[in-house]
Amino acid sequence: MKKTIISIAAALCTVTMFAQPQLKKDNLNEVLKAMTLEEKAALCVGGARAAIVEGVTSGLVNEVPGAAGNTRPIARLGIPNTVLADGPAGLRINPTREGAGQTFYCTGFPVGTLLASSWDVALVQKVTEAMGNEVLEYGVDVLLAPGTNIHRNPLCGRNFEYFSEDPILSGNIAAAYINGIQANGVGTSLKHYAANNQETNRNEDDAIVSARALREIYLKTFEIAIKKADPWTVMSSYNKLNGEYTQQSEDLLTKVLREDWGYKGIVMTDWGNKQGTVKAVHAQNDLMEPGNQNEIDRIVAAVKDGTLSEADLDRNVLNMLTYIVKTPHFNNYKYSNKPDLAAHAKVAREGAAESIVLLKNDGAALPMAGNESVALYGIGAIDFVAGGTGSGNVNKAYVVNMVDGLKNAGFKLDQAIIDYYQSYIAFDKASKKLAGTAQGWSTWGGTKYSEIAVPANAVASHAKANDAAIIVIGRNAGEGADRKVIDDFELTDIERNLISNVSREFHALGKKVVVVLNIGGVIETASWKHLADAIVLPWSPGQEGANAVADILVGKVNPSGKLPMTFPISYIDHPSSANFPSNYTRNTTPMFGWGRPAPKQKDVDFTNYEEGIWVGYRFFETNAVEVSYPFGFGLSYTSFAYSKPVVKAGKDGFTATVTVTNTGKVAGKEVVELYVSAPAAGLEKPEKELKAFAKTGLLQPGQSETLTFEVSAYELASFNENANCWETAAGAYTVKFGASVADIRATAAYKQAKAQTWAVSNAFVK
Ligand code: BGC
User: Which of 141, 251, 260, 270 is catalytic?
Assistant: First the structure.
């Protein structure tokens, strides 16, 4: 009898099983129809670390330890879980697992700012193709990257993850990044959408931004990336925008993203649990991460009491199913857990070396022969910063610091100086009980030691004993905090003394001083740069770090990176400094006395983007404010000549060509930046704006290459917030071909025959 009941139950079960549609690429609507309200809600709420809804979902949750989140499986409908993990400089998962018998290290690639310094979309795509392979082979479906927020202000703690102060460069680099990752059949999450330009109070801060600045600067970078690359997912940000949380903003998520730009993928929240889940669903934020039961309950209750229409939920569920059927989990990809880390390390090194920026090279101080004896200074030479801290940190197997990198290249290092720093680090580590290589959230960042003074008389003897000096200035930056002006943007007194003592003693003996800036964000350079013969900027270059720096120092790679942002003379030269939550108060001292107003805001719950579109070079160039290094600047060991350019008007905008010739003695690559100055008609415009860029291949001495640029009429448009449309004025435009924004080598004319406008949705209309 008992046996009969069991078999009847089993038979019923089987019948029910067969009655359930199983998710396939072409039956999404059928699966949607078969879902209960609770299942629909659960699919729109992540399940990392949270209990699986009893009877609703089942399956693995923390399949990839250290992954930031996942989506919930619904076994009865054949819906698998999918896994989401950070972050821009490589995959962030835990490097070890209990009883696994192997490690799960990932490659630490160059940070976003360094990748953008390459101005080379093909290179960025090559790097991210390798990165994406680790995503695939470690069983992850979506890499939570790239971060494409604009460098509004140099102090934003996460600028290292982001690309540029300019939306055209930023958007195109983001697109290349996405295309590289997604070429592996895994997804990306373009983040943090939008106006997430500071870390201070990032969960509650309300960014007050004009419609014009939004469309032209802060949204433009996302628009380009969406249109040129189609990321599987977008991550809404923590902050509010014009009074509304971005994750709950129909203007942002439905009108701009989907109606204006035609985006078809899903939107997920950044990692927080805000109360307004129902509003987020309505706005078309499809997935709440990391997700909790309260969010499921809120959705279910709202549909039941009519405050959320089930059609809104269904629309998001359909978006989710469309995403899920693309994933490796759905396609049963058998990941190996064994990506080729050795091959990827080579790509990381190439990616870094090809992007490093040479800021100064007086008297051809570089390249060096590579066999010199070197006095290597700075705690950062040993405690080298490969990447930033926070979710963008990567659990990498090693970091090549400057000591190893220089030795690998053949330099002879003054061991006494290294020992001096090593003993200080050992002491500091012991006294602060600094963590070693813990896993997970505790590895949000490396440990960073504060700089230690080197006695001036010791420096004098180092100068006698060595051929040259290399000083490393190190800075850590990371998620959750903005940087400060004093002792971060500006050098510390110990660093200033070090640079000036080393400069004095080595220069007295006719020996060179090279400064390496191992930093995560812009620092002050104007007051001390005259003391160095050469300045090399590798930002935070990833695990192969100083191997790449050495490639530049010895000329194995000729530097071809250029700045993706301006290095101002003083912090307060940036108009945004008047409205950025820093505790900076030194603007009345003579050195910084540029007559700009004191910061109006400290730690308040809103940030007024009062400067509008006057971000970075748009401000500096238009107002002729002197800078330390302009946007787009970077030196080479060779020189380039630009031909007379040709600009041809087409049906839509223009095509431009310019021929670049290597006029120096060594092979090198050149980035050409195409700027446009618009006619003085209609809206007020920046003096010039970047519209396109291209990089040559490796040109041998005497060799030439013709670069081609396409600029459409839409790309020339400015946003008219009164008429709520994009408009391109008719008239005479000057097309400028620059080696930097301040070094225009050739110009040509373009005539826009007719004025043109493009309508947009009514988002952000006052
Ligand atoms: C960060 C995101 C990250 C997420 C998951 C958040 O705190 O802002 O960039 O992807 O955590 O780790």
Answer: 270
